[in-house]
Structure formats: structure tokens, C-alpha cells
């Protein structure tokens, strides 16, 4: 009986792990289309490279680290904004309010966006003067050919 139970339980664990993988956003959106690594310190705003989305009416997986390590209580604002035709959307943290899904030191979201070129801005405020390199990544679900290779570490 122990052998039967352990084999069934082992099989069940593998199925659960596979289902967990299928629910991972990276599984559904494996293709990197945008990457930026801005350095921030103190308070300010950075104009990031433009975001050129190749597809229409798709969900794109946005992720951003707000801090690489250390306590999160030094992060007052870390807000990634994208704008087109006067319309702005955002993910991040603004005065303790989360925009998107947060998990420790990062924030993510899955917005539906149209094919276009978006202005990208990062607003930030940290309560110390340490220099941080944030990681911003955007993925999509198909392998639309880009005419450039997104920088992974710049």
C-alpha cells in the first residue's frame, strides 16, 4: 500500500508543478521585447527608451524590481509610467500604494495594449542615498520579429 500511495502522490506532485508552470506569466509571455536598467538614487524622474509594441490588442507582461536587496521601507516611490496620446498607465509603488501586483522587491502587471510607440518614464523616491539599478522587463506571448535586440544589461 505504501508503494502505491507514494507513486500516486509523486505523480500528483509532478502534475501540480506542471500546472504551476503553466500559470507562470513567463510561460505565456516568454519573448523579451523591452529591457531597461536605470540607475536611481534619492528622488527624481528618468525618461526611459521608447517602448515600441509590435502586436495589437495583446497582453504584455511588465515586471520591475524596485530594489535589488535590503529593506523595502526605504522605497517611497518607484513608478513606471507609459504614455500615448495623453493617456497614461503605470505599475509600481507611489507613497505606499501599489499599482500592479507586488511581491517583495518587485511589481508586475499584465496590461492589454495596442500596437504603438509609448513614452516611458520612471519616477522614484528613496529615503536614502544608495544608488540602485532597477530592472524593467516587458515580455510578449509571440515571437514577432523585432528589428533590434533588447539590451538585457545596459
From TrEMBL:
InterPro entries reported in the protein's UniProt record: DUF7154 (IPR055578)
Domain DUF7154: 36-140
Superkingdom field: Eukaryota
Name this protein carries in UniProt: CUB_2 domain-containing protein
